[in-house]
Amino acid sequence: MLTTRVGGPADAAAVARLWTVANVARQAHLGLPLGPVAGAVSLTAAEDRVRGRLAGPGAVLILGFAREASGSAPGSAADGEPAAMALVVQALTDDGAGTDPLPGLAHVSMVAVHPDQWGRRLGGVVMQRAQVEARHAGYTRAQLWTHETNHRAQRLYERLGWALSGRTTADEHGEQIRHYTRDL
């Protein structure tokens, strides 16, 4: 079972922990060298990144909390830590490098599920809530980027109606990423 709620700046540390552990696990699962998300300094950087994004206009943070039928597990509601998350922010020009907003376009960022919860469809629940909240915030379209190697995320996004735009690039660490869009 998963419950969701809208998060805020007070959740930045928990969100940074979830995002970091999910990314480290993804890299390890693929046999990739652990990138900058693996250290304590990057945990601080991740928390700063979350706080900065939440400070922007139109930002919406969705948190999911899992509860096992027989008790709690890591990332469960019982331990108070989110098991899944998605952050929606105002899309900006130049793929986020610019400062001008792209009216009506949401950028979905920092989607993560705790590795102990992978395969339980928690990401889908959080993404569906994020899409609803983005519509309520006035967005009409949405975009996101995901790693070429993240086939689990690609299946999720495509199942939820996201379509490849045909754009690809490398992220700030040199990993290839692909672009998805959808109407809200």
Protein described:
The chain has 184 residues and is α+β, with helices and mostly antiparallel strands. It has a single domain, classed as Gcn5-related N-acetyltransferase (GNAT) (Aminopeptidase). The chain is 31% helix and 32% strand. The chain contains four helices and seven strands; from the N terminus they run E-H-H-E-E-E-H-E-H-E-E. It has helices at 12-29, 40-54, 122-136, 151-159, and strands at 2-7, 60-66, 84-92, 101-113, 141-147, 163-170, 176-183. A seven-stranded mixed beta sheet has the order 1-2-3-4-5-7-6. Strand 6 and strand 7 (176-183) form a beta hairpin. Helix 1 packs across helix 2 (40-54). The longest helix has 18 residues, at 12-29. It is globular. The two termini are 25 Å apart. Residues 37-41 and 74-78 have low confidence and may be disordered.
Q: Indicate the CATH architecture.
A: 3-Layer(aba) Sandwich
CATH topology: Aminopeptidase
Low-confidence stretches: 37-41, 74-78
Structural class: alpha+beta
Kindly estimate the percentage of residues that lie in beta strands according to DSSP. Answer: 25-35%
What's the name of the CATH homologous superfamily? Answer: Gcn5-related N-acetyltransferase (GNAT)
- The Rg value, from CA coordinates, equals 15 Å
- List the strand order in the largest sheet: 1-2-3-4-5-7-6
As a percent range, the share of helical residues equals 25-40%
For the termini, the CA-CA separation is 25 Å
Q: What is the number of independent domains? A: 1
Globular, elongated, flat, extended or rod-shaped: what is the shape?
globular
- CATH class descriptor: Alpha Beta
How many helical stretches? Answer: 4
Mean pLDDT across every amino acid position: 87
Task: Tell me the major beta sheet.
Answer: 7 strands, mixed
